[in-house]
Design a protein that fits this description.
mainly alpha; Serine Threonine Protein Phosphatase 5, Tetratricopeptide repeat; 19 helices
Length: 392
């Protein structure tokens, strides 16, 4: 547009000047080396205008040709891109349908022409993993890692696949590296939570739970459940490493709220019993049962190996006196009487326990007590009840 206006301006000026100086064309002499060119001013002006017009026209032709070439090339590129996207979409559908072989072929067929080849390589890696082809999976992940801004996507894909393959150590290494690079990524934190549980890394699990709660990755109920699981596992770990003294020291350092949790008290007591600290375990369980009726803790009492079981018997008798319907206390006392070979008393308390609730173990103990009293038919009847309970 500018060039057209420019030409009209030049023509206008030429017409104006030509009108003003008609009949006075002037004289122009151009000398180059041994050559001379003579012309009138009017001729020179017309020549210049014609030259400019020719140059502008030539520029237009060249641009037109270049534009046509570019449009032609662009048309082919867009066509390849559209085809690549179509194959990728079809590959994703095949992956979801479980046709992993065709999914891999679809996404890789035109991956080089896709505007996001990273997506193609990750889908191909997933398809190869689902087919159990580890070599291809690694090749696709390597190609994916060569793409721009691929660190997080490739790392998460690799970690998820390692977790599904139960390669938890590899997943831990990868996720730990990613966590250092992307500390605020909630998906990384959630995957680490599962890996910590599988590898029994209890302290890291305890440390990560508050962050998962703040990010709403888990609700309070889940957080409490994982916290108890982690502390329970940590108690077992410390017991194995430091023995009963280290276990007691760790228990004393826990917050009061945790020390009131029945499941943790049970774990703590079991670890003490396993390390022959039975009297310490009895003291812990007794103090809790004085305040709360926890069936799981009553069940631990018969497992304790005390040289003098009289205090334990007296404690259970007082519990029953306070609550005659305490089935767990009747069961524990019945088991203790079996150890003392006091079969009639064992029978009495086990029958009272079973009158309140059905329990396979109590049926087995009762059958044993009856057999030792030569009540064989009654013992068989009780055994059939236990078998029925197991099958139901």
């Amino acid at each position: 547009m500018f060039r057209t206006v420019f030409l009209f301006v030049i023509l206008g000026l030429g017409l104006f000047v030509g009108t003003q100086y008609s009949g006075q064309q002037g004289y122009v002499l151009i000398s180059i080396a041994n050559k001379t060119i003579e012309m009138s001013v009017t001729t020179l002006v017309i020549f210049i205008i014609a030259t400019l017009a020719a140059l502008f026209f030539l520029e237009f032709i060249l641009k037109r040709a270049a534009s046509m070439s570019y449009n032609t090339w662009n048309w082919f590129s867009v066509r390849k891109l559209r085809r690549s996207r179509r194959y990728t979409n079809e590959g994703i559908i095949k992956l979801l349908e479980g046709d992993f072989k065709h999914a891999e072929k679809k996404v890789m067929r035109w991956a080089n022409h896709h505007d996001k080849p990273l997506l193609c390589y990750l889908i191909a890696a997933e398809a190869a993993f689902s087919q159990g082809d580890e070599n291809k999976r690694q090749q696709y992940l390597e190609k994916a890692s060569e793409q721009d801004d691929s660190t997080l996507a490739v790392g998460l894909t690799r970690a998820k696949q390692d977790i599904r393959a139960k390669n938890y150590e590899l997943a831990f290494d990868g996720l730990s590296t990613l966590n250092g690079q992307f500390p605020n990524n909630s998906l990384i934190q959630d995957l680490l939570k599962g890996v910590y549980i599988e590898l029994k890394l209890w302290q890291p699990l305890i440390d990560i739970l508050p962050k998962l709660g703040r990010e709403k990755s888990i609700n309070k109920e889940e957080s409490d459940r994982y916290l108890l699981l982690a502390h329970s596992g940590l108690l077992e770990e410390i017991a194995q490493q430091k023995g009963s003294e280290g276990l007691i020291a760790h228990w004393d350092s826990l917050p009061k709220k945790l020390k009131n949790e029945p499941s943790l008290i049970a774990t703590f007591s079991k670890q003490l019993i396993a390390r022959k600290a039975d009297y310490e375990a009895f003291g812990v369980v007794k103090n809790v049962l004085k305040k709360n009726n926890v069936e799981e803790l009553y069940a631990l009492l018969p497992e304790m190996n005390l040289s003098d079981r009289h205090p334990m018997n007296q404690f259970l008798l007082s519990s029953i006196k306070k609550d005659p319907d305490n089935a767990a206390a009747h069961s524990a006392l019945g088991q203790l009487y079996i150890r003392d070979q006091n079969w009639p008393e064992a029978q009495k308390h086990l029958e009272q326990a079973l009158a309140k609730r059905s329990n396979v173990s109590d049926y087995a103990y009762l059958a044993d007590a009856l057999e030792h009293q030569n009540l064989n038919q009654a013992a068989r009847d009780v055994s059939r009840k236990a078998l029925t309970l197991v099958k139901s």
